[in-house]
C-alpha cells in the first residue's frame, strides 16, 4: 500500500511532533513514523521522567530538614517504588495529552520503523519511506518533504556496556526497581550533575568522575566552582581531571570496581553501580540515508540554516543534526523547518518567526539542587571574543525570598559590554534558576542593556529581584549589597 503526504516525519520526539503540529496548522497533510512511543526520549526516557524523579528527591531532601521550618516530621521514609509509580503517572498523563494533540490536528501516527529509499517506482526522487509496521504489515509513504527527527542515544564506553543493574546509562537508571547504596557517575556534564544531585538526595553515596577540569564545563567558571562547593558540602565526592581506565573494569555480583587516573595518580573506586553519562550520539544510522545524497559528517546529518540537508526536500532537526542537544532547541528547529517548507509568509506570523536562533542565545538549564540556568556568553567567552566586560553579581543570601525559602546558596551573575551596556550573558545558580532564566533570555533577544533590566520594577519579595540587582551591580548600583 502507498500513501502520499505533504510532510512525513521520521521520529515522534519533541522535534518531530512540534514540526508536525506546526505543519498541520499551516494546512499540510502530515504523518509521523515512530518505532516506539510518541514523545520520544524527552517524554519517556529524558526530560519528563528525570524531572519527576528530581522533584521527589527535592521533596525528600526538604522533609529531612523540616525542623528548620518549625515542622516535626517523624518517620519520613523513602518508598522508591512509589516514586517510580508517580514518575510513570506523570509520563502517562503527558503521553495522553500528546495523543490528543495528534488527533486534534489530524496527524497520522504510524507505529513502525521507517527507512528512506532512493528513486523508485513510488517516486522519481529519494525521500519515500518504507515502513515496517509494528503490527507486521509493510507499506510505503511518499512525501513532498521529509523531516528526519530521530534524536540521539546515550554514548557508551568500551567495557562499560549497560546491563541494567551494575552498569547503567540514564535510560536504565530511570527504570531501577531499587536504588544502589553507592554509585560512580562517569561524566560531570548536565546529565551527570542531575543524577548526582537526585541520587544523593535519595541517600545514595555518589562519586562523580569528570575528565575535564570542572563540573558543568559549558557553564561559567564561577558557577562551576559554586556547584562543586555545594556538592562537596552535601557529601558528594567530586573528582576532576580524572580518567576512567576502561580496560581495567572489574564486575562482580556485589558491584563494579574502576581504575581511575587523577593527575598521574591512580586509585580504585568501588561501588554497587556505575552510571555512564558521557554525552549522546545521533541516531543517524540505519535510516537508509545511503540511498540518498544526504551527507552525514561525524555521525550527524549536515544541514543548512533552514535545516535542509544536501537534498533540499529532506530536512533534519534536533539532536540528529549536530546542533545543541536540548529538547527546546529540537522543538524550535522543528517549527522553523515546517514554516520553511510551507514557504513565504508562513513564518512571518508563526511562533518561530521571531528569529533563527543563535546558539549562545538559547537558555541552558541543569535541574539538580541547586538549579543552574544560563543564557549568552560566559565571562571567559566574552573576554576571549574581545569584549571589555563589566560583571555584576548578586548573592541569594541577600535576598529576602531566598532566605524565606531556606535556599539562599548561589548567585546571579551578569556579564555586559562595558562600552555599550549590552547584555552578553546571564548565569544563575540557586533556587528556581531554570524558571528565572526566561527574563534574561528575552532581554538578550531584545538587545537590552543591563541598566534597562535593572531599572525594571521587580516585585518584592521574589527571586526575580536577584536578576534586577545583579544587573544594577554591574554598574555598582545594587541596593541590597
CATH class of the largest domain: Alpha Beta
Give the structural class: alpha/beta
- Look at the structure and name the CATH superfamily of the largest domain: FAD/NAD(P)-binding domain
User: How does the major sheet shape up?
Assistant: 5 strands, mixed, barrel
Q: Work out the strand percent.
A: 25-35%
Structure overview:
This protein is α/β, with parallel strands linked by helices. The chain has three domains: 2-153 and 281-342, FAD/NAD(P)-binding domain (3-Layer(bba) Sandwich); 180-278, 3-Layer(bba) Sandwich (FAD/NAD(P)-binding domain); 370-473, Enolase-like, domain 1 (2-Layer Sandwich), CATH 3.30.390. 30% of the residues lie in helices and 26% in strands. It has 13 helices and 24 strands. It has helices at 14-25, 40-44, 47-64, 80-104, 170-173, 190-201, 221-233, 327-342, 379-384, 400-405, 433-445, 450-454, 465-473; strands at 2-10, 30-34, 108-117, 128-133, 138-148, 152-154, 167-168, 182-186, 205-209, 237-239, 242-244, 250-251, 256-262, 265-271, 273-276, 280-282, 296-297, 300-301, 314-316, 364-366, 371-376, 389-395, 411-417, 423-430. Helix 1 (14-25) runs parallel beside helix 8, helix 3 runs antiparallel to helix 4 and helix 3 packs parallel to helix 6 (190-201).
Fill in the keyword field for this structure.
single chain, 481 residues, alpha/beta, FAD/NAD(P)-binding domain, Enolase-like, domain 1, 3 domains, five-stranded mixed β-barrel, five-stranded parallel beta sheet, 13 helices, globular
Amino acid at each position: 500500500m502507498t500513501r502520499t503526504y505533504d510532510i512525513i516525519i521520521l521520529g515522534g520526539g519533541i522535534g518531530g511532533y512540534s514540526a508536525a503540529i506546526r505543519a498541520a496548522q499551516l494546512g499540510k497533510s502530515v504523518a509521523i513514523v515512530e518505532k516506539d512511543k510518541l514523545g520520544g526520549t524527552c517524554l519517556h526516557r529524558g526530560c519528563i521522567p528525570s524531572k519527576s524523579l528530581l522533584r521527589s528527591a527535592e521533596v525528600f531532601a526538604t522533609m529531612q530538614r523540616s525542623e528548620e521550618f518549625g515542622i516535626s516530621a517523624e518517620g519520613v521514609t523513602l518508598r522508591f517504588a512509589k516514586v517510580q509509580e508517580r514518575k510513570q503517572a506523570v509520563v502517562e498523563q503527558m503521553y495522553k495529552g500528546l495523543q490528543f494533540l495528534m488527533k486534534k490536528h489530524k496527524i497520522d501516527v504510524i507505529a513502525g520503523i521507517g527507512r528512506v529509499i532512493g528513486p523508485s517506482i513510488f517516486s522519481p526522487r529519494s525521500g519515500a519511506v518504507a515502513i515496517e509496521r509494528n503490527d507486521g504489515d509493510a507499506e510505503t509513504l511518499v512525501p513532498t518533504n521529509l523531516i528526519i527527527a530521530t534524536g540521539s542515544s546515550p554514548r557508551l564506553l568500551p567495557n562499560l556496556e549497560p546491563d541494567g543493574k551494575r552498569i547503567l546509562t540514564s535510560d536504565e537508571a530511570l527504570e531501577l526497581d531499587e536504588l544502589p547504596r553507592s554509585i560512580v557517575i562517569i561524566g560531570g556534564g548536565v546529565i551527570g550533575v542531575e543524577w548526582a544531585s537526585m541520587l544523593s538526595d535519595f541517600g545514595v553515596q555518589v562519586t562523580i568522575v569528570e575528565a575535564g577540569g570542572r563540573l558543568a564545563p559549558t557553564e561559567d567558571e564561577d558557577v562551576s566552582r559554586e556547584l562543586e562547593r555545594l556538592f562537596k558540602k552535601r557529601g558528594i565526592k567530586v573528582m576532576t581531571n580524572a580518567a576512567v581506565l576502561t580496560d581495567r573494569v572489574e564486575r562482580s555480583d556485589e558491584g563494579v570496581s574502576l581504575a581511575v587516573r587523577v593527575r598521574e595518580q591512580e586509585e580504585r573506586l568501588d561501588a554497587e553501580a556505575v552510571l555512564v553519562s558521557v554525552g549522546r550520539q545521533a541516531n543517524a544510522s540505519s535510516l537508509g540515508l545511503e540511498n540518498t545524497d544526504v551527507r552525514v559528517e561525524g555521525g550527524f546529518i549536515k544541514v543548512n540554516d533552514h535545516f535542509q540537508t544536501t537534498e533540499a526536500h529532506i530536512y533534519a532537526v534536533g539532536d540528529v543534526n549536530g546542533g545543541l542537544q536540548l529538547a527546546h532547541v529540537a522543538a524550535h528547529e522543528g517549527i522553523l523547518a515546517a514554516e520553511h517548507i510551507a514557504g513565504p509568509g508562513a513564518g512571518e506570523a508563526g511562533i518561530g518567526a521571531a528569529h533563527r536562533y543563535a546558539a549562545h542565545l538559547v537558555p541552558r538549564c541543569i535541574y539538580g539542587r541547586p538549579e543552574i540556568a544560563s543564557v549568552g556568553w560566559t565571562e571567559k567567552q566574552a573576554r576571549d571574543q574581545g569584549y571589555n566586560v563589566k560583571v555584576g553579581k548578586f548573592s541569594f543570601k541577600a535576598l529576602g525570598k531566598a532566605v524565606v525559602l531556606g535556599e539562599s546558596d548561589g548567585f546571579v551573575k551578569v556579564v555586559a559590554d562595558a562600552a555599550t551596556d549590552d547584555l552578553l550573558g546571564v548565569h544563575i545558580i540557586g533556587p528556581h534558576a531554570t524558571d528565572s532564566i526566561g527574563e534574561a533570555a528575552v532581554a538578550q533577544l531584545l538587545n537590552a542593556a543591563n541598566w534597562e533590566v535593572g531599572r525594571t520594577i521587580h516585585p518584592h519579595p521574589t527571586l526575580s529581584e536577584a536578576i534586577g540587582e545583579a544587573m544594577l551591580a554591574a554598574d555598582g548600583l545594587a541596593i541590597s549589597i
